[in-house]
Amino acid sequence: MKKRILLTYAMYGNGHRAVAEYIASYFKEQDPELEILAIDLLKYSTPILGNISQKVTDFFLLKFPAGWSFIYSLFDTKISASIANKTSMSLFKNKRMKQVITDFNPDMTISTHFFGSSLIDYYNKKGITHSKLITVVTDYEAHALWLRGYKREQAIVVGDKDEVAYLVKKGVDRKKIKPIGIPINPITSSNFDVDKAIKKYGFDGVRPICLFFGGGGNGGTLSLPYIRKIIKSNLNIDFIYVAGKNQESKAKVDSWISQYGVKNIKTLGYVNNVPELLQMCDFVVSKPGGAQSTESLYFKKPIIMINCSGGQEVANYKYFVKNGYGRRFRTSFMFNKYMKEISDNPQIIEDMKKNMAKNKNNEAMEKLYKIAMQHLKK
C-alpha cells in the first residue's frame, strides 16, 4: 500500500513554502510511489481571519520589526504560546480544512510551520487522523510555538546543533531532536557552465560578483538606500540586483544606474533561476530569512544581511555571524563601509567561504528522508 505524506506550511513569507516544496520534490524523486500532498494552511483557513492574520504579520515583518520582535518574545513562553496556539487554531479548525486532510488521510505529516504541527497534533488527539508527525523548524531558533506537541511528535528538525541543549531544557526528549540543518534541495544542472552564465549577465568574471536580493513588495523599498549607496560608491564588485515583483524599485535602481553612469550593476525583476544565480555569484546580500539564508549556505556563498525583520530573523543572522558565514548591518552607511572593505580585499569573502565549506547542511534533506522512512516503517 502506498504511503501518504502530508506537507503543511503557511504563507507568512515564502520560507515555509519553499522548504515544504523542496521536501516534496526530493521525497518524490527518491520514491515515486509516495503519495505527497503539500498544502498552504492559509488557503483553507477561515477566510477573513486568515487574511487579517497574514496582513498583520506582513506589516510587522516589513514595517515594524521592533514590534515583531516584541510579539515574538511575548509568546515565547509555555503559557503564552499555549494561549496563542489555542487562539490561532480558530483559523484552521473548520470543515474545509478537516475535509482536505481526512480525505488524504496521511500516514505522516511533515510540517514546516508550527500551525501545521499544532493542527495535526490536535487531530491526532481527537482521533480524526492517525498521522506520524515531524516538525521542521525553518529558522535557526525554535520558538515556543514550535513545541506545542513535542511529546507526541516523532522528530523535531532544527538547523543549529546549539538548539539541542535549549530544547532539552524546554523538556523535549533529546532523542527526538534532529540537528541536521534546514532541509533544502535546489535543483541544479550537472553541466551548468558558470563562466558562460557570468558572460550572459555582462560580466567578465574578474571582479567578485554579488547577488543582491532587493526583495519584492515593501522589502524592495527597504533595500533602496543600500543599493543606492553601492551605486554611488563605484566599487570593484559586480552586482546583480533582484527586485522581485517590485517594478517600482527596479525602475528607481535603473534610473540611478543611468544617472551615475554605472556599468557594474545588472537589475532583474522576478526570477525563477535562483540556484543558477547563486552558483555564479561570490556572495549574497539579503535579509536574514531562514530559507533564503540556507540557500546561500547550501551553495557556500557568504551572506551580508540587511533589513532584519526581528523575531526569528535575529536568530538567523546570529547563527551566520557566529559561524563566520556572514555579517549583519543595521544601517546603509555601515553596510557600504564594509562593502568597500570587500572591494579592497576580496579575501574577506574567501575566508567566509572556507568557514561555510565545513558546514554539512547539504546533507540535511537526505537525513530527513531517512528519518521519515524509518518512522513510516514502524
Secondary structure: helix percent: 40-55%
**How many DSSP E strands?**
12
CATH topology term of the largest domain: Rossmann fold
The fraction of residues in strands falls at 5-15%
User: Quick one: biggest sheet?
Assistant: 6 strands, parallel
Q: Using only CA atoms, what is the Rg?
A: 21 Å
* Integer tally of domains: 2
Query: At the fourth CATH level, what is the homologous superfamily of the largest domain?
Result: Glycogen Phosphorylase B
Overall pLDDT confidence: 88
> What oligomeric arrangement do these chains adopt?
single chain
Report strand order across the widest sheet: 2-1-3-4-5-6
Number of DSSP helical runs: 16
Distance between the termini: 14 Å
Query: What would the principal axes of the Cα set say about the shape?
Result: globular
Overall structural class, as computed from helix and strand content, comes to: alpha/beta
What is the CATH architecture term of the largest domain?
Answer: 3-Layer(aba) Sandwich
CATH top level of the largest domain is: Alpha Beta
- Poorly predicted spans: none
